[in-house]
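pinned: reference chain
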Amino acid sequence: MSNTPKHFDLGSTLEMPELKDTGLAIRLVPVRTTSRPVQHLKMNRQQLIERVDGRWRSSVQAVQGLPADVVSKPGAVGQWSAKDLVGHLAVWEEESVTALRLIGEGRRPPRYARFGGIDAFNDMKWREFRDRPLADVVRWSQESHRRLLDYLAGVPEELFATETRFRHRLRLDTYGHYPEHTAHILAWRATLPV
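pinned: its structure tokens
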């Protein structure tokens, strides 16, 4: 992805037809889209929640304005559609909450080797949700994100202060993960006819 810009800003507000009656307006923030490691500064809970939320919203924004049939058509990344990428991020937000609870209790989350590795796990989960309608995937994504933010709002502050195992897992599953797929969607969008 050497041609991928390091930052992007897709506008100021997200509007999705599926959300028209919810009153949801999403503010966007610039997002780093490189996979290079970033030096993680000391951050408090609110700063990390804002980072998670802002990068998630930018990922959702990447599908803004596209018709449902285009968003649901395979090919955004391999056989996955943009809808599938939104669902994939919801899977990892759910995984994050599960793993973070265990880490917060001083336990280790189970390894994905039991599924055949991360790629096999991703494929298994994709097969579970790929036939769901776009509106269901959007709703699921929003609900998963809300659960994640609610969970983060209630955990002890010391889990956020330094690069703990908790913060490391949070970064891998969320704000370090979203930009990768945002870049995929934006690159795919650039290939669509105008």
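why pinned: The two ends are 23 Å apart (CA to CA). Residues 49-190 form a domain with the Four Helix Bundle (Hemerythrin (Met), subunit A) fold (CATH 1.20.120.450).
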